[in-house]
Amino acid sequence: MRRPLIAAILIGLYGAAPAAHAQTPAEASLAAHPPAVEATTQLPRGVSPTHYAIEVTPHAERMTFDGKARIDLEVRQPTDRIVLQAIDMKFIDSALATPGGKTLVPKVSVDADAQTATFAFDAPLAPGRYTLSTGYSGVIGTQANGLFALDYQTDAGRKRALFTQFENSDARRFIPSWDEPSFKATFDLTVNAPAGDLVVGNMPAASTRDIGKGMKQVVFRTTPKMSTYLLFMAVGDFDRSTIRGENGTEIGVIAQRGKAEQARYALEASRDVLREYNDYFGVPYPLPKLDNIAAPGRSQFFSAMENWGAIFTFEYSILLDPAISNVSDQQRAFTVAAHEIAHQWFGDLVTMAWWDDLWLNEGFATWMEGRTTRKLHPEWDIDGVDAAYTSRGAMGRDAYATTHPVVQHVETVEQASQAFDGITYGKGSAVIGMLEDYVGADAWREGVRSYIRKHSYGNAVTDDLWREIDKAAPGKELMQVAHDFTLQPGVPLIKASASCEAGATKVALEQGEYTVDRPGKAPLRWHVPVSVRGGDGSVVRVLVDGLANVTLPGCGAPLVVNAGQRGYYRTLYAPAQFKALGDGFAKLPVVDQLGVMLDASALAQTGLQPESDLLDLADKVPLDASPDLWQLVAGVLEGIDDLYKGQPERQATFRTYALSRLSPKFEQLGWESRDGDSSTVKDLRTSLIGTLSAMGDAKVIAEARRRFAASASDPAAMPPDLRRTVLGIVAYNADAATWDQLHAMARSEQSSMIRDQYYGLLARAKDKALAQRALDMALTDEPGATNGAGMISAVSWEHPDMAFDFAVAHREQVDKLVDTTSRARYYPGLGSGANDLAMVDKIRAFADKYIAPTSRRSAETAIAAIQTRIKLRAQQLPQIDAWLQRKG
Ligand SMILES: [Zn+2]
Predict the structure, then answer these.
(1) Distance 279 CA to ligand 1 centre (A)
(2) pLDDT per residue over 777-836, tens digit each?
(3) Which residues, listed in sequence order, are joined to residue 512 by a DSSP beta bridge?
(4) Do residues 43 and 85 touch, judged by C-beta distance below 8 A?
(5) In 3D, which of 628, 607, 602, 618 has the Cα closest to residue 660?
(6) Could you say which DSSP state residue 299 is in?
(7) Phi, psi (5° rounding) for residue 528?
(8) Cα(751) to centroid of ligand 1, in Å?
C-alpha cells in the first residue's frame, strides 16, 4: 500500500505466466517443502485452503452482495470443525464434500468479535482433501474496507462504482477465507454484473456471457498462488486503455468513463517501470496483465494498493488533468506507480509470513520507488532530497519513546493496521538504502534476486532476505548490522571530533543515541556503517561499535561524516569541526548541505547543539545556492515561525527577519514559470509563495487573491503550476464571501478530482467561524462519503482543538467516515498539533474510552508530540530571540 503523502518530503509472455491450475516449479517445490517458519496465526493451522472458486453478485443499489464459495482445502490434523475468517456475513446451504465422495452438512456459527465463522461436524474429519461450499451474503461499505462503493458526479449525473480493498485484513468481508498472508491459494473469480459495466479482476477475463435481465457473467482466469489480501474486483462505468509491455505483458489503466486518457502518463510510466523491474528482480513479471484502476475519492489511510495484476489508485495520485496538474502531480503519479509495481514482486510474488515483517513489503517498495525515480527521471534531480530526507523523516518519529523496531510483533488486526507507519515505510526504506550502500549495489541486487527466486509464490521472514544478501556480500557482518537496525528501535548518534597530527586528520567517532524525550537513558548500541569524507574528497568507511578512529590525509578542510547521507544516524560535530563545516558550507555537495542542516536542526531541538549554529548556517545561504537548499531554509524558518504561535509580538520580530531572508530569493524567481525552469525551481517557487504567505507577507497574499479573482475570466492567471498554491492561500485567508465562492465552485464542479480538492480547501480557513462551517459540512452528504474525514483533518491543521472536540462530540457520525482500522490513529491525529497540555488529557480520555489498550500507540505518539513541542518551545525561543537581537 502507499500511504498518502509518504513522499511529501517537501512529501506475455502470456505463455510464461503460470497457466490456470498449472503449478510453477516454485509452487511445486513449496508444496514439497512447506515454509520453515511457522507464522503467527489467529486460525487453527490444521486446515488450510488450496483453491477458492468464488461467484459474486453485487447489488450496488441495496449496498449488499450475494456470494457462492467453493473452497478446496486440506485437513492435516483430525478435527471436527473448520474455522475461517468472515465479517458481516450470513451463510446458507453449506456443505462439505469428503474425499470418499460423501456430503456432510455442517452447523455454522459466527463469532463477530473474533471475526470468524465455524463449520462444525458431528464427527472428526480425517486428514485428506475436502471441498467446502457455501452460499453467503455480505455488505457493501462506503469506506475502503472490503467491498465498497464510491459515488461520484459526472456530466451524465451521479454514478456509483464498486471496488475492493483488503489489506490488511478485510478479504474476510468479501469471501469466507483464511485471511492471513501465509495461507496462499489460487482463486477463480466469477462476477455477475450489469451488462454495460466493466468488471476488473486480478487476471484477464476467460469468458463473458449474457445471463439476461441486462446482466452478464464474467469469469476470470485462475490467479497464481497468492495471499487473500491481494485479491481484487471492481465494477463500474469504466474506460480501459492498454499498451503492450516487455515480454508481451498487457499494461492497462482503467478510469471512470472519459478519464482513461488522463491516466496515459501513468500507463507509460508503468511500462517503463515494469521493464526496469523485470531486469532488477531477475524474475519476469508473472501475470499476463497489469492494470492500474483509478478511483474517485480518498481514504485516510492509503492512496494506492498493490493488488496483484490490478493496482488500485485514488484519482488524485494517478490522473493528470491538463487544466490543473503540474510537475509535482506527475512525480506523484510516477512514484506511486513505481511503489505499487515494486510490490508485484516484493509483497505479491514473495509475501511476508505475518504482519511482523510488513516492513519487507513497505520499506522495500518505498526504497524501490526512490531508486527507480532517480534512475528513470534524472531530470527531476531528487537524489539529494531523497537521500537526506527519507532517513530524517523517519528519525523524527524514531527518536520518541513511543517508537518501535522495524520488525515488530503484531497480534491483532488493529495492530497490523497501525504498523503502516513512518517507521515501517521510512525507516525501512532508509535502512535498506544504508545497507545497499554498505554492501554495494551489485551485491545487494544479487541477494535480492536470489531471495525472490527462492521464495516465489511463498512467504518469507526478514532473516530470509538477510541470508541471501549475506551470501552475496560475504565478510560484511551484514546480519549483525541489519539486526541492530531492524530488531531494536531508535536513532544512533555519531559524535565526531578531529585533530591534526603529523599532517593528517585524526577523526574520533563516538556512538550514542539521539532521543527527543528520553534524555539520560542508557543509549542502545548499533554497528553503524559510517563514512567520513576529508577535504581532499577521499572517503574512509568504518563500522562503528562504540568508538572508532579514522585517519584522513591532510589537515584543515571540513570533514563530512555520513558523506552522501545514506547512513541512518545523526551526526554531532565538535564545535571546531562544525565551524569549519559552516565556513566551507557553500562548497559541500547539496546532499551533504541538506544532511548537515537537518541534523543541526534536530540537535538544536534537543539542546545538543546551540540554535545559533542552525541559524548561522541558514543565514549564510547565498542567493545562487541550490533550490533544494533554499527549500530547506524556507522550511526551517517556517518551522521556527510555528514555534511563535500565540506570541504575536515576538513572532513579528522573527517574521521581519525571515521575510527579509526569503523575499530576495522569491523576487529572483518571480511568480511565473520560465522556460527551462527545472522541477526543483518550480517546487521552490511554490514553496516560497506558501511560506511567505503563511508568515503574513501582505504583497504575496494580495497577489494570490488577485490571481484567483482574475482566473474567472483569464485561466492563465492561475496556471497549473500555481493553481494549488494560490487556491491554498485564498482558502486559508478566506472571508465569508470568498468561502461562499469556493463553496459554489465545489458544488458546480463536475470533475470528481477537482471537486474533492475544493471541499478540502473549504476546510483550510484560518477564520474560526468558517472552519466551523466546514466541520458541519463534513458530516453531511454533500462533500461525498470519502471527503468528510479529510475535511475534519484539514481543519485540524489550523484548529486542532476545534477539530478534535468536534470529532469526539460527533463520534458515531465520524466513525462512519473513517476506515474501521484507521480510527485508532485518526482521532489522536486530529489533536496532535495542539499547543496546549489540556489536549493531552483529552486524547488520553478518548483513548481510555474508545481505543483498545493494544492499539494506543498512535494516541501515545500524539501525546508525546504535544508534550515535547511545548517543552521545546520553552527551551528554543529564548535562544532564537537572543540570536535575532545579536543580528540586530
Ligand atoms: Zn506499499
Answers:
(1) 20
(2) 999 999 988 999 999 999 999 999 999 999 999 999 999 999 888 899 999 999 999 999
(3) 493
(4) yes
(5) 618
(6) -
(7) -100, 120
(8) 27
